[in-house]
Amino acid sequence: MDTFKWQGKNRQGKKVKGELTAISESVVTLSLRKQGISDLKVRKKPKAIEINIPFLKAKVPEKDVVVFTRQFATMINSGLPIIQCLEIQSSQQDNKEFKKVLTTLKEDVEKGETLADGLRKHPTVFDSLYSNMVDAGETGGALDVILGRLAFFMEKNMKLKKKVKGALVYPASVLCVAVIVIAIMMIFVIPSFQKMFSGFGAELPLLTQIIVNISAFLRGNIIFILAALFLTSFALKKIYSKNAKAHHFFDNMFLKMPVFGLLLRKVAVAKFTRTLGTMVSSGVPILTSLDIVARTAGNVVIEKAILNTRDSISQGKTIAEPLMESGIFPPMVVQMIAVGETTGALDQMLNKIADFYDDEVDVAVNAITSLIEPLLMVFLGGILGTMIVAMYLPIFKMGEVVH
User: Helices marked H in 48-142 — which ranges?
Assistant: First the structure.
C-alpha cells in the first residue's frame, strides 16, 4: 500500500486536494471520481529519507518499555485481543522509534507470527529474557500474568541501577569539578603569581618552585596531555571489549576492589536471584533461564560462574554446588538456594534473596556515600591548600627578610 497526493475540483467547481492510501494510482483515481472529483492530478507521495547514523539514532528508554509492559498486561487481562492492544499502544506512543517497533510488531502478529517471535526481531528493545518469558506466557496461556511479572521485574531492576548510579555519580561529579578547579588554578592563577615572584629576584621556596614547574608543564603541553588521555581511554576500552583475558582481568579486579567491589557483588547477587526467580516462576526451563541470566550478568567472571552452574545442572548436579565452588556467591545465598531446591520452592526463595539484597545494596550505597564524602573533602582540601600555601610562601619569606 502506497500513499498518493491528489488535487482536483469538486461538484461545485471548487479546488480540493488531499492524500489517499491505496494499492495503485488507478484505484485512487476511480475512488475519487466516484466522489465527483474532476480534473484529477494524482501522484505518488515520496517516501521520507531516513538517515541512519548509529550514535544519533533515537533509543527506546527502559522506562517506556516498563510502562508499555504494565499497560499491555492490564489490557490483556481485560480481554482485549493482542492486535488491538498493540494498535492502542502504538497510537499513544510519543517515542518515534518505539512507535515504529510496536507498529511492526502489530503487523507481524497480524501475519500469524507469535508475539514472542515478533519481539525477537527487536533485541535492542526487548531482550532475550523478555521474549523468552512472553513465549512461556503464550504457551501456558498466562500472558497477562507473565507481563505483570515482567513489569515488576523491570521496575525493580531500574531501581537497582538507580542506586548504583547514585553511588557512583556523586564522587565522579565532585572529582570532575575538582579537576576543573585545579586546572583553572594551574593554567590561569599560578602564572599571575609567577610573574609577581619573578620581579622579586629571590630564589623561590622548593614547594612553590614545584607548583610553578607543574603549571608551566601543563600550559606548554595541555593539548598533548588531553590527546594522551583520550587515546589511553580509547585503547583501554578496545582492549577491554576485544581481549578476553583483559576483560576477565578487569572484571575480576572490579569485584575485588576495597569498597566498590562489595557493592558490585551485592548488585550481582540481587540481579542474578531476581532474574532467575522471575524466569523460573514464569515457566521458562532452568537451563534456558541460566543461559539468559549469564548473558545479562554484565561481568564475565559472574557470567562464567553461572555458565559453569548451567553445565553442572545439565550433568545432573544441583544449582547450589557449582555456585559455592565459584566463590562469588555468599554461603548464606547458596544455602538458601539449596533449601529452595530441596523444598521445590526455588523461585520463591530466589525472590526472597533478591528482596534482601536490594536492601543490602541500599545500605552499601549509604555507607559508600558516607565514607567517600569526607575522603573527597580531605583530598580536595589537601591539594588546594598545598597550592595556596605554595603561592604565599614567597610572600612570607619576603616579610621575614624585611624584618
Answer: 62-77, 82-91, 96-110, 115-120, 128-140
Q: Whats the size of the chain, residue-wise?
A: 403
The C-alpha atoms of residue 83 and residue 107 are separated, in whole angstroms, by 8
Give me the sheet containing 38-44, strands edge to edge: 15-22, 2-9, 38-44
At 93 the three-state DSSP class reads coil
Name the nearest CA neighbour of 390 among 256, 210, 233.
210
Q: What is the DSSP secondary structure assignment for residue 188, as one 8-state letter? A: I
- In DSSP notation, 2-53 reads EEEEEEEE-TTS-EEEEEEEESSHHHHHHHHHHTT-EEEEEEEPPPPPP---
CA distance between the termini of the chain: 96
Cα separation, 270 vs 353, whole angstroms: 7
pLDDT digits (tens, 9 = 90+) for 87-140: 888 888 888 889 899 999 998 988 888 998 999 899 888 888 888 888 888 887
Angle between helices 62-77 and 82-91 (to 10 degrees): 140
User: How is residue 339 written as a grid cell?
Assistant: 533449601
Give the homologous superfamily in CATH for domain 60-155.
Type II secretion system (T2SS), domain F (1.20.81.30)
Q: Just give the CATH number of 163-403.
A: 1.20.81.30
β partners of residue 41: 7
**Among 83, 65, 80, 88, residue whose Cα is nearest residue 151:** 65
Q: Which is nearest to 168 in space by CA: 271, 259, 247?
A: 259
Question: 205-242: per-residue pLDDT in tens?
Answer: 888 888 888 888 888 888 898 899 889 888 888 877 77
**Rounded distance between C-alpha atoms, residue 382 and residue 95, angstroms:** 48
